[in-house]
Amino acid sequence: MPRRSPAPARFRRRRKTPRWGNALLVAVPLAAFALVFMWDGPPAGLAAVLELPRGEAAGTRDSERARFAICGGGARVTCVVDGDTIWYRGEKIRIADINTPEVTSPDCAREAALGGAATRRMQALLNEGAFSLEPVDRDRDRYGRLLRTVTRDGASLGAVLVDEGLAEEWQGVRRGWC
Fold first, then answer.
1. Is residue 153 within 8 Å of 61, Cβ to Cβ?
2. How far apart are CA 90 and CA 65, in angstroms?
3. Residue 9 included in any domain
4. CA atoms in the 13 A half-sphere facing the CB of 47
5. Is residue 101 part of a domain?
6. Which of 77, 102, 106, 122 is most buried, judging by how many CB atoms fall within 10 Å of its CB?
7. Range of the domain at 148
8. Residue 111's domain is classified under what CATH number?
9. CA angle at residue 136 from 60 to 98, to 5 degrees?
């Protein structure tokens, strides 16, 4: 039997990509988007619709949870500005029960060092687990920031910074740290 010569290129069948290959082109970017969008947990409205608890357990009093970074340049969504100011889910919040040293315009090297330590400590406390944002006597300060006390199991996270010498209880005015 004579051997057949290969068919010319124009008659050869092109190999088709598997059907799942096209699905991956859609699924992978969609999964990446969902991961970024849901990084801090589902938005409050979506959590309520899905009946998902946002805290550690369904019966816990602390209902907020997020992964906080230190704020840098660019958009601020969920990060720590300094020891007494955070961004949470796109809202700037002033922690109402404490005053911490400044990090953006410190008056001396001691204030800069204490401010950096207070910032890192608040970040660590927030990242330890679920917390609550408790309202105070007024909703916002003169700069438009939400005023809230941050608590875990009913205890103020700001009080931890006070106990560690990184903050003072809020007295209505800022004092110097130098």
1. yes
2. 14
3. no
4. 14
5. yes
6. 122
7. 53-169
8. 2.40.50.90
9. 90
Spatial separation of the C-alpha atoms in residues 93 and 125, rounded to whole Å: 16
Nearest one of 160, 73, 166 to 112, comparing CA atoms? 166
Question: With pLDDT > 90 as the criterion, what percentage of the chain qualifies?
Answer: 52
Structure tokens given for 33? 């988007």
Q: How many degrees, rounded to 5, is the angle at CA 115 between CA 128 and CA 82?
A: 55
47 residue type, one letter:
A
**Distance (Å, rounded) from C-alpha 167 to C-alpha 59?**
31
Q: Is residue 1 in a domain?
A: no
Residue type for position 106: P
- How far lies 57's CA from each of 14, 37, 65, 92, in Å? 55, 22, 11, 26
pTM: 0.65
For residue 42, is pLDDT > 60? Answer: no
In a domain, 119, yes or no: yes
Alpha helices in the chain (DSSP H): 19-37, 44-50, 109-127, 157-163
**Cα angle for residues 113, 98, 143 (degrees, 5° grid):** 95
Which pLDDT tens digit goes with each residue over 7-26?
A: 666 666 666 655 656 666 66
